[in-house]
Amino acid sequence: MKDLDDILRLAQSGSRDRAALATIVRTHGSSYRAVGTRMLVMRDGTSAGALSAGCLEEDVRERGSNVIATGRAMLVPYDTRRLFGCDGRIDVLIERVETDGAWAQFLAVCFEKRRRGVLLTVFEGQSLDDLGTSPLFSEDFGSAQADGEFRLRFTAEAATALASGQSVVVEQDGAGALLHAVEPPVHLVVAGGAYDAAPLATFASTLGWRVTVLARPEDDRSAFAGMEILPVTAPDEWPLSADERTAAVVMTHHFGRDAAFLRQMLQLPFGYLGLLGPRRRRERLLQAIDTEFHPVAAPALARLHNPAGLDLGAETPQEIALAIVAEIQAVMAGSAAGFLRARKGPIHRRSDAVELTASP
Fold it and tell me: Would you say the C-alpha torsion 333, 335, 339, 345 has a positive or negative sign?
């Protein structure tokens, strides 16, 4: 979701203006980026997001400038066999948008309120007026976001995209649309402000994740510049909530504080909960929680990742941070985290391979 975050930041960086929004709406064969990948081009040529490894962007900027001037959306096929040596083709819709339009407001609400939603991008329709991107569905408002009778025909499939977290392409009777599943960025809560928490927070920030560090008031904060730091004297002062897109890692290196944080966090619906340290220390922590409070329920224990991180042979704080971030990414994406060379089928999830029949 970092591309969408960067796109929204660029759209909100100045006063209201027109821009061009480019979206990969279909792929055929292999492609560098997946369906739903977007790029925003401003009137002055600045951009956010990328559709390729750098081969398409200049052409998209030039076409985007024309779209901004004329207001006429265009569906552009790019032959990746010729450009990248890949065995495939991608179709890109380039449309004119307002930087404070409904699409941007919708993304802002999804990110700020941590709600999931679906953006509808129509790339083939009965007329040019049908083409473009608009909000279709959100957890808060249901299908009330849909605009126009033509777009309303796709609302039935929005629930499919929302439930799976994957974008869906719908094609029927000359109409084509991308239902782009939008999820809030991962929010990483780091319980601990020691030196080894800094690389973990930094790696997470580079992925566009929201990061909150729960540190003691006396901890050195210089390594966490630009991140949200909450000075927590006692773990029960922690004021945050959790959801399935929130991850937490307990790493205070203090037995009592680790136990207190762990007791609280095991009761919250984190999408990922990690604990630094060996298994024997975990058992001591859980025994302390059981003795002082009550036994931890089995479902909560099943969500606990300890030792935290993938088995990458990590030794240094930076390597350990990489292993933990990789494990969080795998859990959030529902991936088994194996070697790509052992994967059967394409690297990307083939959202475009799912073709549904839209309600007439």
Answer: negative
Burial 25-48 (b: 16+ CB within 10 A, else e): bbbeebbbbbbbbbbbbbeeeebb
Is the Cβ–Cβ distance between 26 and 16 less than 8 Å?
Answer: no
Distances (CA, A) of 223 to 7, 134, 196, 201, 237: 27, 40, 10, 9, 23
Q: Output the tens digit of pLDDT for each of the chain's 360 residues.
A: 789 999 999 999 988 899 999 999 998 876 778 899 999 999 999 999 999 877 889 999 999 999 999 999 999 999 876 655 556 789 999 999 999 999 999 999 999 999 999 999 999 987 777 899 999 877 765 554 555 566 666 777 777 788 778 888 988 777 889 999 999 999 999 999 999 999 999 999 999 999 999 998 888 888 888 788 888 877 777 777 899 999 999 999 999 999 999 999 999 999 999 999 999 999 999 999 998 888 888 888 999 999 999 999 999 999 999 999 999 999 999 888 888 888 776 666 655 434 444 444
**CATH 3.40.50.720 placement within the chain:** 187-333
327, 274 contact by CB (below 8 A) = yes
Strand partners, 248: 189, 273
**The two structure tokens encoding residue 140:** 């808060």
CA 203 to chain centre: 15
CB neighbourhood size of 259 (10 A): 21
Between CA 169 and CA 50, with CA 7 as vertex, the angle to 5 degrees is: 65
Instruction: Give the number of other CB atoms < 10 A from CB of residue 238.
Output: 19
Query: What is the Cα–Cα distance from 334 to 332, expressed in whole angstroms?
Result: 6
CATH 3.40.50.720 assigned to 187-333: yes
Sign of CA dihedral 82, 85, 88, 90: negative
Q: For tokens 């619906």, name the residue.
A: 269
In this structure, what DSSP letter does residue 234 have? S
Strand-strand pairing, 47-48 and 38-42: antiparallel
Hunting for tokens 């591309």 — which residue is that?
3
